[in-house]
Amino acid sequence: MAFKDGDFLEVEYTLWSDADARVLESTNEKVAKEANIYSDKVKYEPILVILGSGAVVKGMESALMGMDLNTPKKFSLKPADAFGERNADLVRVMPLSEFKKHDINPYPGMRLKMDNMTITVKSINSGRVVVDANHPYAGMAITYELKVVKNITSEDEKIKILGKTYGAEPSEVKISGSQVQMVYKDSVQKNADYFVGKANAIASAFTYINSIDSVKVIEEYSKPKEHKHEEEQ
């Protein structure tokens, strides 16, 4: 089975550094724990890859195109097909005061967005902070092991996994012709991340699902319990 641009794939993967065989990332919780890279902030589950979207490195996307469902594939990539070569121009020194005015206390290894770039703090000394805007794996030859566990073909499942990917999975999805109805019940926590994620999911739905012309969102809110108690008194 060959996959094509526009396919929605759920993919399991593990990523190693070729230089020292160190595990860098994995969707497998057991592998992450054995490699001492486990984090309770990470959800260890297959990721969504929309082929042709450019969201993953080109070597990974090319490999996925020729894979079969539930058949693992292991391969190595040079930096050009992975996370690119390191660019010395992307390493710079910033004043510590620039971080402080944004209430940020930098530390080595910290990853954050500044000036529309994702940067890594490398060191801090005498009021100066050395930051690196290269991808952490830039310049590295790497090895992937991939497995496509699902090819999502139904439109309602595509909508749900887009929401899940952006942290705003709808409770229900209903499709009528070219209109999608996304239902968020009261059980869905509606914080700031939810509103951003919902907007991103809808934008991606318009981009990657051609049959959709409109999206209707239904949100359910229940009165907080403490307010109910006040009314009863």
**What is the number of strand segments?**
12
> Would you tell me which CATH topology of the largest domain applies?
Chitinase A, domain 3
Q: DSSP helix count?
A: 6
Total domains, how many? Answer: 3
Low-confidence residue ranges: none
The second-level CATH architecture of the largest domain is Roll
- Percentage of residues in helical conformation: 10-25%
Q: Please report which band the strand proportion falls in: under 5%, 5-15%, 15-25%, 25-35%, 35-45% or over 45%.
A: 25-35%
Shape: globular
Could you state the order of secondary-structure elements as H and E?
EEHEHEEHEEEEHEEHEH
Mean pLDDT: 93
Detailed description of the structure:
By secondary structure, this protein is of the alpha+beta class. The protein has three domains: 1-84 and 140-153, Chitinase A, domain 3, CATH 3.10.50.40; 88-132, Beta Barrel (Thrombin, subunit H), CATH 2.40.10.330; 154-233, Alpha-Beta Plaits (2-Layer Sandwich), CATH 3.30.70.2210. Helix content is 24%, strand content 32%. The protein is built from six helices and twelve strands. It has helices spanning 29-34, 58-65, 96-100, 155-165, 192-208, 225-232, and strands spanning 8-17, 23-26, 47-50, 73-77, 91-95, 111-114, 117-125, 128-132, 142-152, 172-176, 179-184, 214-219. The strands form three sheets. Strands 1, 2, 3, 4 and 9 form a five-stranded antiparallel sheet that branches. It has a four-stranded antiparallel sheet with strand order 5-8-7-6. Strands 10-11-12 form a three-stranded mixed sheet, with helices on one face. A hairpin with a 2-residue loop joins strand 6 and strand 7. The longest helix is centred in the last third of the chain and has 17 residues, at 192-208. The protein is globular and about 60 Å long. It starts with 7 loop residues before the first strand and ends with a helix. The model has no long low-confidence stretch (mean pLDDT 93).
